[in-house]
Design goal:
- Residues 92-103 have a biased composition (Polar residues).
- Residues 1-25, 83-103 are annotated as: Disordered.
- Keywords: Coiled coil.
- This protein has 3 helices and no strands.
- It is mainly alpha-helical.
- It has a domain at 9-82.
- Helix 2 (24-90) packs antiparallel against helix 3 (97-130).
- The protein is rod-shaped and about 100 Å long.
- The chain starts with a helix and ends with a helix.
- The mean pLDDT is 83.
Amino acid sequence: EVQRLNQQLEEKNGEIQQMINQPPYEKEREILRLQKSLAEREKAQATSDVLCRSLTDETHQLQRKLASTAEMCQHLAKCLEEKQRKEKGNSDDQIPTERSNQLLDNETSLQALICNLQDENRMLKQKVAHV
């Protein structure tokens, strides 16, 4: 291990001696190349940081939207359940045909809305998982 480290140290000393022995313009050129490389890396890091912040914000936004969608689905499911219980209670009262059709339309639209919300919920979960 010591020999390997000594060899690396000798290589580095050789590189330093080469740099010292180079003409001044070569040194300047190397310095400029290193500065340019550093600037490119700093720019790439800044871009990466901005993208990470943006993705984090989008993730939080999608999580909030997912939570509100899930809450809305639960609320609609409860409403549908209550309506079904009421319909069962009213079935003994012989609901008029027009009222019956209206309730069926409402139930169908609620079910369609629930399906849409479930699809949106699924898509949001996929987006969150992707992010």
